[in-house]
Amino acid sequence: MRHWRQIGFCLAIFVCGGLLYWQKSQRQAEEPSLPGSPSEPAATPMPAPRLALAPPSRDAGMADTNRAVPDEQALMERIRAVVQSNPPLAEALAREGRSRFPSGPEADERDALLVDALINQQRIGAARSETYYYFDHHPDGRFSNHLFVMTGVHPRPTGPGR
Questions:
Q1: Taking the CB of residue 137, how many other CB atoms lie within 10 A of it?
Q2: Do 144 and 115 meet the contact criterion of CB atoms below 8 Å apart?
Q3: pTM value?
Q4: Tens of pLDDT along 24-73?
Q5: Domain spans of the chain, in order of start
Q6: Which DSSP string do the residues of 52-119 spell out, in sequence order?
Q7: Distances (CA, A) of 162 to 41, 130, 158
């Protein structure tokens, strides 16, 4: 009796699979072809027109640079705003901040946000390397525990025997 139940179960699965396959093929036959599908040639997009702009004067370029380059606080606010939504931009901004403000008051948070941006990009090896950099440059940093939890990198012990 047990043998017949197993055969019946296998037949029921086989029949259900056949019905699902048949329904899927019916739906595909009823759907209209989408643009860009193999049955219809894809339209070639036109390139966007290029506008010829006059090069800015030397003085105007300097004014734009000063306006576009924020101070450390503004840079940190921007990094905080995009670390989750746009981690590559947050990484670029943090690296820019590191080169412009190497020992600024927000250096430890900036370096921790750089690690977070790398983690959000799933670049764990790079994040671990930056965590070692963090511990070398900020041994008593505010974000040591956070970085330990995120990367598994231990802060180096202090004291004798280091």
A1: 14
A2: no
A3: 0.56
A4: 666 666 655 544 445 544 555 545 444 333 344 444 433 433 345 569 99
A5: 72-151
A6: P-PPPPHHHHHHHHHHHS--HHHHHHHHHHHTTT-HHHHHHHHHHHHHH-TT-TTHHHHHHHHHHHHH
A7: 68, 21, 6
